[in-house]
């Protein structure tokens, strides 16, 4: 079968993973918008599991944005020193707190979120998806999506998250943008692993270039 000439749309091909994963909560174990924003900033180039590990002590000490406004680098370091690039991220967090001042001022638009230090399009898409901001303005593209989408034949390979997002937005209908990025991400976390992918249990194997080649 020539998958590139397959008349079935990618929206239909991907529907099994949308059904399987769309109601799955993001792996970051946040409790409110403030925690989500801070954890998303910390999670850049680090694992969600590691951020979840350090989060309880961090948020016990700094329970809201207001509590961070008067914090210093030295105040933050003991709580985030186990995070990759924690010194740079401390600066991002403190600047964000100074900018927003309170939880009530957390923005919910792509333009406003990406003005904050440490938040790019991927992070903004995660925040807006988790906080159910509609209409969806983009697709979450993390490292799993960058690996899986080209592997299955969805887009051409690229390490540029913005380029990958643009390609996906051109290919897929807007009504699945909200879910599809994290659905592909969960597929990559659980089945389409970097090495030894579990192709035999993949719900979209019949449409996958990697599997069928």
Mean pLDDT: 95
Pattern of helices and strands: HHHHHHHHHHHHH
In CATH, the topology of the largest domain is named Endonuclease III, domain 1
Which overall shape is indicated by the principal axes computed on the Cα atoms?
elongated
Q: How many DSSP helices?
A: 13
Number of domains: 2
Into which percent range does the helicity of residues fall? 40-55%
Structural classification: mainly alpha
Unreliable parts: 1-5
Number of extended strands: 0
Determine and state the CATH class of the largest domain. Answer: Mainly Alpha
CATH superfamily of the largest domain: Hypothetical protein, domain 2
Distance between the termini: 10 Å
The name of the CATH architecture of the largest domain is: Orthogonal Bundle
How does the SSE layout of this entry go?
Layout: H1 10-13, H2 15-21, H3 33-43, H4 48-61, H5 65-69, H6 73-80, H7 86-100, H8 110-113, H9 121-130, H10 143-152, H11 161-171, H12 177-190, H13 209-212
Helix pairs in contact: 2-12, 3-4, 6-7, 10-12
Describe the structure.
- Helix 3 (33-43) packs across helix 4, helix 6 (73-80) packs across helix 7 (86-100) and helix 10 (143-152) packs across helix 12 (177-190).
- This protein has 13 helices and no strands.
- It has 213 residues and is mostly helical.
- The protein is elongated, with a radius of gyration of 18 Å.
- It folds into two domains: 3-24 and 138-212, Helix-hairpin-Helix base-excision DNA repair enzymes (C-terminal) (Endonuclease Iii, domain 2); 33-130, Hypothetical protein, domain 2 (Endonuclease III, domain 1).
């Amino acid at each position: 079968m020539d998958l590139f000439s397959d008349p079935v749309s990618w929206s239909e091909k991907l529907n099994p993973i949308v059904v399987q994963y769309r109601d799955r909560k993001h792996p970051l174990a946040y409790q409110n918008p403030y925690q989500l924003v801070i954890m998303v900033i910390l999670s850049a180039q680090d694992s969600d599991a590691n951020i979840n590990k350090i989060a309880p002590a961090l948020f016990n000490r700094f329970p809201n944005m207001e509590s961070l406004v008067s914090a210093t680098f030295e105040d933050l370091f003991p709580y985030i020193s186990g995070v990759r690039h924690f010194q740079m991220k401390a600066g991002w967090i403190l600047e964000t707190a100074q900018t927003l001042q309170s939880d009530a001022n957390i923005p919910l638009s792509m333009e406003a979120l990406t003005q904050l230090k440490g938040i790019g399009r991927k992070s903004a898409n995660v925040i807006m998806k988790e906080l159910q901001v509609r209409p969806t303005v983009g697709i979450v593209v993390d490292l799993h999506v960058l690996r899986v989408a080209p592997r299955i034949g969805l887009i051409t390979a690229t390490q540029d998250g913005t380029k990958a997002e643009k390609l996906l937005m051109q290919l897929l209908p807007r009504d699945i943008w909200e879910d599809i990025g994290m659905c592909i991400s969960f597929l990559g976390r659980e089945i389409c692993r970097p090495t030894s992918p579990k192709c035999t249990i993949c719900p979209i194997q019949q449409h996958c270039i990697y599997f069928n080649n």
